Fold this protein.
Amino acid sequence: MHPQISTHHAKRHGVHARVEKLTAGMALWRCRRALWTGFVRACERVERDAAMAGEDPNAAVLDWFGVSVKASEIPAHLQRMKTLARKVCPYVDTLRTWIIS
């Protein structure tokens, strides 16, 4: 049994037989999260290194496992998504009332 999923919780919610799948799913989610966090930090580091070298940080390019990525685009996109989430968040409960089950 996974330490984060108690036997009582598993039996109560009928997931006792699926604990291994749930555990694997949580591990996969953590891996994806770690990869994304590492990617964003690498972009920020490339931008910072370019600025310290006296180059244009907006022109910095990151080689991410053989794929060229314009480093300034990822943190900028992430910031836009955070701004969008902040603006949409107050309306989430209102939108749920419109969903017909």
Observations:
- The chain has one domain: 7-98.
- Residues 7-98 form one domain.
- Residues 91 and 97 are 10 Å apart (CA to CA).
- DSSP finds four helices and two strands in the chain.
